[in-house]
Amino acid sequence: MDYSDAIFWYASWPVLIYVAYRFVLINMKHHAKMERLEMLEERFGKEVEHQKCEEF
Amino acid sequence: MHHIDPSLIDWSRAQFALTALYHWIFVPLTLGLTFIVAIMETIYVKTGNAWWKKTTKFWMGLLAINFAIGLATGIIMEFEFGTNWSNYSWIVGDIFGAPLAIEGLMAFFMESTFFAVMFFGWDKVSKRTHLLSTWLVAIGSNLSALWILIANGWMQHPVGMHFNPDTARNEMTDFWAVVFNPNAYTKFLHTISSGYVLASLFVIAISSWYLLKKRDIQFAKRSIMVAASFGLMVSLFNLTTGDDAARQVAINQPMKLASMEGLYKGKKGAEIVAFGLLDPSKTLKDNKDPFLVKFAIPGGLSLLSYHSFDAYVPGIEDIVYGNKTHHIMSASEKMQQGKKAVDALKTYKEAKKAGNVQEAKAALNVFEANSKYMGYGYLASPEQTVPNVPLTFYAFHTMVGFGTWFIVLFIIILYLTMTNELHAHRWVLWAGVWSLPMGYIAQEAGWITAEVGRQPWAIQDMLPVGMATSNIASGSVMITFWMFAILFTALLIAEVKIMATQINIGPKEADHV
After folding, report:
1. With an 8 Å Cβ cutoff, are A31 and B222 in contact?
2. Quick one: B160 and B293 in the same domain?
3. What is the domain extent for residue A34?
4. By the CB < 8 Å criterion, does A35 face chain B?
5. Is residue A33 assigned to a domain?
6. Do residue B167 and residue B274 come from a single domain?
7. What is the DSSP letter of B332?
8. B218 and chain A: CB distance < 8 Å anywhere?
9. Domain boundary among B321, B347, B365
10. Residue B67, CB half-sphere, CA atoms under 13 Å: how many?
11. Do A6 and B43 touch (CB under 8 A)?
């Protein structure tokens, strides 16, 4: 019997979890930047925000 | 075979359906939330940021409540195989019992053991050991689902066994054929990924509610970011596995597929109904249009089922009454063969008991020639092979419709989260809140499609539900049905109340959970 399809699909489960985890990490990094920009905007105002933005 | 009271079959079915539907309120959330919590804790361990520990603990508290109640309903369901479905357990216990036993020994003990470390071990084990425990709970609970869905996949498409006429039982001949059954892996992946979608919706709904109430804003935004990212990935995977699952249904359960689509007459280039209202007065062979109104995509069903716009998809009437052009055997022909097999088995047993070797051998030959359709021998009419078409159709379309909406929702929410505009779009937050009940409805609709669509079979084409029940008084099953209905409802109310209290307290107090 050829079970290669089944093995491929079962193997996709841990791959899915890993890819989803990496996707969360990538988005989290971007989100952290957004949070920092928001914080800077609150602290220094909009003009400073654009200057600080270049630091990331 | 002795006569079985029809009301016993109905009450046994109702009781199992009740238990399964309640059980499935709790399980999918556990399957997904364990991974979301594991990802949050991994971020905590990697960054050392205590804020993520607080977030992890809050969601872990809600997971614990759900886990405990899911466990209670699951154990009752396994006992019902013995109490209400003892004929089923006798006939296929050798095969069906194996994955359930592995589930108990391997997955259930794994998740239960490490759950204790995960929940109570924050200050007792190292950070990394705790993280490992959390991941093992997530993997264990999903492995638990794997073995149960292998068992269920076998009910949809029985493989890897042979019928022993001496014991009147099916015995496993190929364990790997059961494990690698196409219906098992498609069902497993589609089911667990739908659980991940529900867990993502759960986190989004509660976090959206915090944003609407303008409280715990940073917690809510970060939680939404994790859930929407995870949700988008898994919902796309869910779509892919749904496509694969539908193809397996087309190959192995064409009646279920025809019922899912309300397709009474088979055709080449069959359309897929995106939205439709069935005519309740529709009956077999009345030549009426099954739909009062519909919006359909031409060739869609052929493409979905066989990856070709021109492929022929058999309809309900083709499967019941046969279609010579497309080499489809009618249900009545299968019933004739099935009855021959049932009679031959009876003759074989009597001849063997009487020591008549020649007659036993002849009867066994007749049995083996007709045993493929033995299950049909227990049916009363060809029309009995048709499941409840409206229920299967509406359940399937509800699942697909809601599933499509969830992908759109995850995209919108993720975009607005990444652009930091989510809090300004209150309608999206409300959509996030209201998508949670939709997620639960989609979960239940998926199971209704799978299980109602398989009727009248307990095991596809092999064992009708009428032959699978225990020979007990229907009154006993009726009484326990109402007892379980009250008990499960009380458990559900308790879960919702405890969760609502924890959600109201919020993440600030999560360290005390």
Report:
1. yes
2. no
3. 29-56
4. yes
5. yes
6. no
7. H
8. yes
9. B321
10. 26
11. no
Within a domain: A53: yes
Please tell me which residue of chain A has the smallest CA distance to B223: A28
Number of compact structural domains in chain A: 1
Chain A positions in Cβ-Cβ contact with residue B188 (cut-off 8 Å): 10, 13
Pairing of strands B267-268, B169-172: unpaired
Two structure tokens written together for B219:
């917690």
Confirm whether pTM is higher than 0.90: yes
Looking at the 3D structure of chain B, how many domains does it have?
A: 3
- B413 contacts chain A (CB < 8 A): no
What is the DSSP code string of B257-296? HHHHHT--S-EET--EEEEEEE-TT--TTS---SEEEEEE
The SS3 of residue B412 is: helix
- Shortest CA distance from A35: residue in chain B: B420
* B176 and B41 within one domain: yes
Place of tokens 């609407």: B212
Task: Report yes or no: A34 at the B interface, CB cutoff 8 Å.
Answer: yes
Nearest to B96 by CA among B17, B1, B181, B25: B181
B415 found inside a domain: no
CA B254 to chain centre: 18
Kindly state whether residue B367 falls inside one of the protein's structural domains: yes
Question: pLDDT digit of tens for each residue in chain B (513 aa)?
Answer: 555 677 889 999 999 999 999 999 999 999 999 999 999 999 999 999 999 999 999 999 999 989 888 887 888 888 888 899 998 998 888 888 888 888 888 777 888 889 899 989 998 999 999 999 999 999 999 999 999 999 999 999 999 999 999 988 899 999 999 999 999 999 999 999 999 999 999 999 999 999 999 999 899 999 999 999 999 999 999 999 999 999 999 999 999 999 999 999 999 999 999 999 999 999 998 989 999 999 999 999 999 999 999 999 999 999 999 999 999 999 999 999 999 999 999 999 999 999 999 999 999 999 999 999 999 999 999 999 999 999 999 999 999 999 999 999 999 999 999 988 898 899 999 999 999 999 999 999 999 999 999 999 999 999 999 889 898 888 999 999 999 999 999 999 999 999 999 999 988 755 444
Task: Give the C-alpha separation, B402 to B269, whole Å.
Answer: 26
Distance linking the first and last C-alpha atoms of chain A = 55
Residue B79's domain comprises: 26-180+476-513
CA distance A52 to chain B (A): 17
ipTM summary value: 0.89
A48 touching B (Cβ < 8 Å): no
**Mind telling me how many Å the CA of A24 is from chain B's nearest CA?**
5
